[in-house]
Design brief:
The structure holds 2 protein chains of 2 kinds. Chain A is α+β, with helices and mostly antiparallel strands. Helices cover 55% and strands 20% of the residues of chain A. In chain A, strand 7 and strand 8 (122-133) form a beta hairpin. Chain B is of the alpha+beta class. The N and C termini of chain B lie far apart (189 Å). The chains are: A alpha+beta, B alpha+beta. At the A-B interface, helix 2, strand 7, helix 3, helix 4 and helix 7 of A face strand 6, strand 8, strand 9, helix 5 and helix 6 of B. Strand 10 (306-310) of chain A pairs parallel with strand 10 of chain B, so a sheet runs across the interface.
């Protein structure tokens, strides 16, 4: 009985140790698997934050393959630090888009959405804020809803920036300045809360007067274009008139020069002729003079339409029928 | 073998007890431990902790991170009787977990109470300010930041010892006008723009007229100057010509007058002229007397 039981015992023990040695492998491999589960990787645009029993051990685990003790000892959270996040702030933009903050506000209060400028004008503004996570541990443990916090602070920054600027500057040349100011104010608020976020860019995608008054604003723009046009027209009037006047002036001067040359040359020619004739007449005595006289009378006589030849009285006076009035000296 | 098995069993039991009597506190939370509702310990540092196993001691986790909520829009009167509708955001966190745990219990309740406090503060504080201290083209006159920090301070003065919370930041996130006021603002904007457009157009016309007048003046000046120069040139020509004539004709004035007269006759007497000649004249000297009459 004892022997038998001893035998059975031996067999059982052998089987048991057999089984045990089999399970040992399974246990061992489970054990290995458990610890292997601690291998993790951080992708290039992330940073890992390693926590042991909830306590931060390392908040700057660089990209690559790493090892941490498995659950429940260590825990790794990966934060995408090199990704630029975008958030659209449309709280001040009237829109019927069901997802927009403006519609929510309208449903709550019945009021339209806008932002008030420094000179008490209303504008609709919509902007995109780009931000990155700069301090992963702050991002994880400082704020419960970082994005919501950022959105609220962005609204505040827009409101305060617009509250100190006149509408004309906001709508025209001040956009750059406005974006810079919003960025600075937002960053200030974020830093005050140690949010671990950094604003990289504020893009004013839409900024315009509300629909109700938009056309009066665009009329001012149109008026400015009109002014430009009118001024340009009168400038082109000037550009047309002045060269014409200069051309006319040049013509006058040229004519005058021509006149000058003409009279001088004429004078020279005539005097030359006169001197020649004079020279001739001095050489030829009275006959030259006679010749000229007769030539002239011939020419005159042939071109005159009517000719009367009268015989004077014996005493040599003028004919009785003909009276000659002489202008009194 | 038996000892091994016993060891295994003991180990399992130990692990179970350990699992039931340890807990971790993360960086996100505070923990308040209670025994049947009665607080025993408050843990503010992250890490691994022991407690009495199971239901004997309960771990209550309380958010330690900053939380944000928006207040209900509230209409109030400014010091200059201008009505506005304000919405704020509030950043707050739990400073004394035990106090918070005992007094408010949930985050929602806390937000609501804080919101009410802040809205009543808004009414108090903004009564001392005017619209021009909210919006002003002079950045130094805009007192929004001052108002916000006043509200934050006032609220924080009222919370200690009561709720265990602290307000980190209050910010106005929206200022609106009630509909009637907004309509008036729209009308004013409209008339301002209309005036501006008129002014711009008038300026354009004025400048255009000025430019045209100046162009006309310049044209006149250019032409007058040219006329002057031309007359001077002509005069110079005349002077030279006269001098030439005078020089030449001075040599025999009588002969010159004779020649000139001859020229004048040729030119003056045309087709319509009537020439009356006396037979006495030199021309007809031979008409009556072939031998010729003696010259007069």
């Amino acid at each position: 009985m004892n022997e038998a039981s001893g035998k059975v015992g031996t067999v059982f023990r052998e089987t048991f140790s057999h089984v045990l040695s089999f399970y040992r492998w399974i246990l061992l491999s489970l054990f290995v698997l458990y610890f292997a589960a601690g291998i993790y990787s951080v992708s290039p645009n992330e940073v890992g934050v390693l926590q042991r029993f909830g306590e931060v051990k390392d908040d700057k685990v660089p990209p690559g393959i790493h090892y941490a003790l498995p659950w429940p000892i260590d825990r790794v959270e990966k934060v995408p630090v090199r990704i630029v996040n975008r958030i659209l702030i449309d709280d001040f933009f009237s829109s019927m888009d069901p997802a927009s903050a403006a519609l929510t506000f309208f449903q709550m209060t019945g009021l339209a959405s806008y932002c008030i400028t420094g000179d008490n004008n209303l504008v609709n503004i919509r902007c995109v804020i780009q931000y990155t996570i700069t301090q992963p541990s702050l991002y994880l443990f400082r704020s419960r809803t970082p994005e919501r916090m950022l959105r609220n602070m962005a609204c505040n920054a827009i409101l305060r920036s617009l509250a100190s600027m006149p509408v004309d500057r906001i709508l025209t040349r001040g956009k750059q300045e406005l974006a810079q100011e919003i960025k600075a104010r937002l960053q200030g608020r974020l830093d005050e809360m140690n949010a671990g976020l950094s604003v990289s860019f504020v893009e004013l995608s839409d900024i315009q007067p509300p629909d109700r008054v938009a056309r009066y604003f665009s009329d001012v723009v149109k008026a400015k274009i009109d002014r430009e046009k009118t001024v340009n027209e009168s400038q082109s009037y000037r550009n047309e008139k002045i060269p014409a006047a200069q051309a006319e002036a040049a013509r006058l001067l040229q004519e005058a020069r021509a006149y000058q040359a003409e009279v001088v040359l004429r004078a020279e020619g005539e005097t030359e002729r006169f001197l020649k004739i004079l020279e001739r007449s001095r050489q030829g005595g009275g006959s030259v003079r006679e010749m000229i006289y007769l030539d002239t009378l011939k020419a005159v006589g042939s071109q005159v339409g009517r000719k009367h030849i009268v015989f004077p009285d014996k005493d040599g006076g003028p004919p009785a029928k003909l009276r000659v009035y002489r202008p009194s000296p | 073998m038996k000892t091994a098995r016993i060891a295994c069993g003991l180990l399992a039991v130990l692990a179970g007890v350990l699992a039931l009597s340890t807990f971790t506190v993360s960086e996100r939370d505070f923990a308040v431990l209670t025994q049947f509702g009665k607080p025993t310990r408050t843990l503010t540092d992250a890490g691994l902790y022991f407690k009495r196993p199971g239901f004997l001691e309960t771990v209550n986790r309380i958010e330690r991170r900053v939380q944000v909520f928006n207040t209900q829009p509230i209409q109030l009167l400014l010091g200059d009787q201008n009505p506005i509708v304000l919405t704020c955001y509030v950043c707050w966190h739990v400073e004394e977990p035990l106090l918070f745990f005992q007094s408010l219990v949930s985050v929602d309740v806390a937000s609501q109470k804080l919101g009410d406090m802040i809205n009543s503060q808004l009414g108090n504080v903004l009564g001392d300010y005017t619209l021009s201290s909210l919006i002003n083209t002079d950045p130094h006159e805009v007192k929004i930041q001052r108002i916000e920090s006043l509200i934050q301070e006032n609220t924080n003065q009222r919370t200690p010892g009561k709720y265990g919370i602290r307000v980190d930041q209050v910010g106005i996130r929206r200022i609106s006008y009630p509909t009637i006021v907004a309509d008036a603002v729209y009308n004013r904007m409209r008339s301002e723009r209309e005036k501006e457009a008129k002014k711009v157009r008038a300026e354009g016309n004025e400048e255009a007229v000025k430019l045209k007048a100046r162009a006309d003046r310049e044209v006149t000046e250019i032409l007058a100057e040219a006329y002057k120069q031309a007359e001077i040139l002509k005069g110079e020509g005349d002077r030279q010509a006269l001098k030439i004539y005078a020089d030449a004709y001075g040599r025999d004035r009588e002969f010159f007058e004779f020649l000139k007269s001859m020229d004048v006759y040729r030119e003056v007497l045309g087709e319509k002229s009537t020439l009356i000649l006396s037979t006495d004249s030199d021309l007809f000297r031979y008409l009556g007397h072939p031998a010729g009459r003696s010259r007069p």
